[in-house]
Specification:
Elements (H helix, E strand, L loop, with lengths): L1 H22 L7 E5 L8 E2 L5 E2 L1 H13 L3 E5 L2 H10 L4 E2 L13 E3 L4 E10 L14 E5 L3 H14 L1 E5 L2 H9 L5 E5 H11 L3 E13 L2 E3 L4 H16 L2 H8 L5
Parallel strand pairs: 1-4, 1-5, 8-9, 8-10
Antiparallel strand pairs: 2-3, 6-12, 7-10, 7-11
Helix pairs in contact: 2-7, 2-8
């Protein structure tokens, strides 16, 4: 009986250890931070299988300025939000628009970049305005501000929505004709068209101009938000911020 109890105790300890290994953060860095994996020029896979982009460079500059270390995981936008909400990540930076709805779940830093959505269609498309989408099929990237705008417009105009996990998948659906259009952040689609020579074009005006923010789970990691804000202020003052944007062909 004693040996049985001892074996049972060991088994319970092992089960708890495995559970913790599977669900708990484990890192030698000060923070674990998640991001998107295909949202150029903010985060994308560059040379040597290394993620680069405006968000990656801003975070690196802020961390250096504030003296903290971090472990980065580029997993996709929806997955990054889930990781923060579950406590698997301390924070995320992923071209995430600050909205009142998201403030119910996340605490945000000061805004670090302002952008808005615009309609995107094939280069040869005759679609000229949003009401031309009536009775058509439009692409949207899951959980994004662009998706929220597409959903609201769908109710007003009357069209179907197909959802995609990444921006490249969404673009390809429009290029191949699976969908007649999508909505995307202007700076992102402009960069994609210019850099990748995509057969796409933007139509109409930019809507919903808003700030991107660095985000943590609501009510947690206030110190990290303070560090990010302080570092952001410093790199704007010393010119590093403008240097990062210029590197990717952007301006504030």
């Amino acid at each position: 009986m004693r040996n049985f109890k001892r074996a049972l105790s060991i088994a319970l300890v092992l089960i708890m250890a495995v559970a913790c290994f599977a669900g708990c953060k484990s890192s030698k860095a000060d923070y674990v931070i998640y991001s998107d994996n295909a949202f150029a020029p903010f985060e994308f896979l560059g040379d040597n299988d290394k993620y680069v982009g405006i968000d990656m460079d801003i975070l690196a500059a802020v961390a250096e300025d504030q003296g903290f270390t971090y472990e980065m995981h580029n997993v996709g936008f929806d997955a990054a939000m889930g990781a923060v909400q579950s406590g698997q990540a301390d924070a995320m930076i992923a071209g995430m628009t600050i909205t009142d709805v998201r403030k119910e779940t996340f605490d945000f830093s000061d805004g670090y970049f302002k952008d808005g959505q615009i309609m995107v269609v094939p280069a040869a498309s005759t679609i000229a305005e949003e009401f031309d989408l009536r009775h058509q099929k439009v692409a949207a990237k899951t959980s994004t501000m662009s998706a929220q705008y597409t959903e609201s417009l769908s109710t007003e105009v009357g069209f179907e929505i197909d959802y995609y996990e990444s921006s490249p998948e969404m673009y390809q659906a429009v290029i191949t004709g699976t969908n007649v259009a999508c909505f995307e952040d202007y700076s992102v689609i402009s960069y994609a068209i210019k850099t990748d020579n995509m057969s796409l074009k933007t139509v109409g005006e930019i809507v919903n101009p808003s700030e991107y923010g660095f985000a943590v789970k609501k009510g947690t990691n206030a110190e990290l938000i303070e560090k990010f804000n302080a570092g952001l202020k410093n790199i704007k003052a010393n010119g590093k911020y403008d240097e990062i944007l210029a590197k990717y062909g952007m301006t504030a």
